[in-house]
Amino acid sequence: MTDHEGLHVVLGASGGTGSAIVSELVGRGRRVRAVSRGGGAPDGAEGFRADVSTPEGARAASAGAAVVYHAAQPAYTRWREEFPPMTDAVIEGAARAGAKLVFADNLYMYGAGSPQPMTEKTPQRASGKKGRVRAIMAEGLLDAHRSGRVRAAIGRSSDYYGPGGTGTIAGETVFAAALNGKTVRWPASLDVPHQFNYLPDMARALVTLGESEEADGEVWHLPAEAPITGRRFLELVFAEAGRPAKTSVTSTTVLRFLGVFSPFLRELVETAYQFEEPFAADASKYRRVFGPFEATPHEEAVARTVAWFRGR
């Protein structure tokens, strides 16, 4: 087992995933270093300012760590150029510290048309650049583990939502828009089931990977509540916000057109298939090894998320 008294370092601590991991670790009474470019931290954690895209920054951030959680990422439009070298720097920093490395990954590498639900053995056949980048980074982490360079584990989740989750497909553009009485624009289809991971559940599962030797050298799909259609998800959001539902669907064709003018929207075209066809991951491997995991029901998770957005 990992030394629970040791230092847990969270890279990307100001983002949705990173801040949730920090909260989970603080709640477990762990020693926590929250690393971000700004250096801020909540009560119970030590703030640390670093640019972990550089080897020097990653080494400084990871110094003295027992576990490093890699939840940092570059701008969405810069993944291909900046994400792999950042992850290489993080691997080197964790290795230098003799720390275990846990990577907060997603499901992009499997690609469109994958058998549902996807498992950790589903073929990685993504054709888009972001999916290929994710596959390359994951293989690099597993190679580093197999070579004995660093202990590593990978936790994969779908799109997330929850307190602190602003920069996500179900973040600012859904919850803030609903609270402000604006129209929520949804990609592709409102009637296709899609898996969403709730941030506190993700953090709980990722910290379990960090503290369990059984997780080492493996990819794990993180448990989530059952897939939900966009229509039902937005019904829950508007009901909790106390606002009349206002929704519209943005087709992939329209996304392609808008992408001519917006680099960010252009990037979304690659992953639009996730909302055009059923999209879910099987987490039975996780539950088989680590035991029962009760994911937060969407009704409760949406209520907590609306409350967070309302209170900002």
TrEMBL record:
What the entry lists under Pfam families is as follows: Epimerase
Under the GO molecular function aspect, what terms does this record hold? aldehyde dehydrogenase (NAD+) activity
Q: Which InterPro entries does this entry report, sorted A to Z?
A: Epimerase_deHydtase, NAD(P)-bd_dom_sf, NAD(P)-dependent_oxidoreduct
Kindly state one GO CC term assigned in the UniProt record: cytoplasm
Report the residue ranges that make up the NAD-dependent epimerase/dehydratase domain in this protein.
9-218
Q: What is this protein called?
A: NAD-dependent epimerase/dehydratase family protein
